[in-house]
Amino acid sequence: MRQISSVAVQAEKIYTATKSICWYNKTKLLNKFYLLQNIILIKNKKLFEIKKDVKNYKIYADRAEINMKNFVINVKENRKRLETFISSNRNDQNPIEVFEAVTPSKIEQNRSYYAGVLNEGCEYAPIPLSIALSHLHLWNKCIELDENVTIMEDDLVLNHNFFDLRDKHINTLKNFDLLVLGFNTDWPVEIDFGGGIPKTSLIFSDDVSDRNLTDEQFCFPRLNAFAGACCYVLTPQGARKLREAVFPLTKDTYLLRNANSFWERDFHYVAWNNLGIDIAMTLALSKLEARICLPPISSPKNDWGDSSMQRYQHAAC
Q1: What is the model's pLDDT at position 1?
Q2: pLDDT reported for residue 110
Q3: Neighbours of 298 (CB within 10 A)
């Protein structure tokens, strides 16, 4: 009772303060509360009615804090990568749990457990298979928790304001299965803006922008294809859809648009064979409400010299 009362007092202070918006954004309450239809909710339980006009406080709902588990996949034997990840992305307000990655040796030791994850003819090498199964474990965790999760790989660099931006984007989208927040930029990304606009392929250059991001720059088109499953938010519904569509892994191909030139839509299609989890996810995207954050708010170092994957395992022909 004392804890609830304390939160109620804090909430009352917010609603009576004249300049409370900035104060609220900087305050972390043990029990999160949200402004919804003139009612204060604490863990979805009605606490008290708000007497003031709700329209003056809509920003509270827009900036509502989101509780979410964050996972980073790391091979136990490669602690150096984990230490680099932690030093680059330390955030005490949003703890990131380390998920010990599946490895080829674990698959070998637990053959019966992992039996049936590959269809006949599917040619996943041991390391790409291990990566795929690591993601599968976290999809199952998402379903078990019955809440959204953020899944990251350990070569990732997060935007300095990553968690605030992520939460704001989730509030903006509201209904989705998968939200990709980071991806490889050395590979085409295929998106669909809708509204009769032609489907689009994004090609990134080596020239790095020195401009700061602003809120107005973000958009979230439908995602058709991407490489590098390094950072994404997944809903329980999305996890179920992905698990059903991706496993068992199949010998399949995605036809990727490849430009002959940048003029007059001169392109052809190349076969992108299912040899990695990002390709398997791409093949499943049409069955999901999948969105991508543009520009991304995280980026992988994507150093092929330090990667568990080999370049030939991630090629189109």
Answers
A1: 33
A2: 92
A3: 23
| Extended beta strands in 17-77, E state | 33-36, 39-42, 45-49, 69-74
- Backbone φ, ψ for residue 257 (5° rounding): -70, 135
Give me the pLDDT at residue 26, please: 30
Sequence-distant (≥ 6) Cβ neighbours of residue 58 within 8 angstroms: 35
Q: What is the pTM of this model?
A: 0.78
CA-nearest of 292, 293, 282 to 225 is 282
Task: Kindly provide the b/e burial profile for residues 212-234, where b requires at least 16 CB atoms within 10 angstroms of the residue's own CB.
Answer: eeeeeebebbbbbbbbbbbbbbb
Q: Largest Cα–Cα distance in the chain?
A: 68
Contact (CB, 8 A) for 67 and 32: yes
Instruction: Locate all alpha helices (DSSP H) within the chain, ordered by sequence.
Output: 2-16, 21-26, 58-62, 79-89, 104-109, 126-145, 162-173, 236-246, 277-284
> In the chain, count of helices (H) and strands (E)?
9, 16
Sign of the Cα pseudo-torsion (103, 187, 246, 94, in order) = positive
Q: Which residue ranges in the chain fall short of pLDDT 50? A: 1-9, 12-64, 304, 309-312
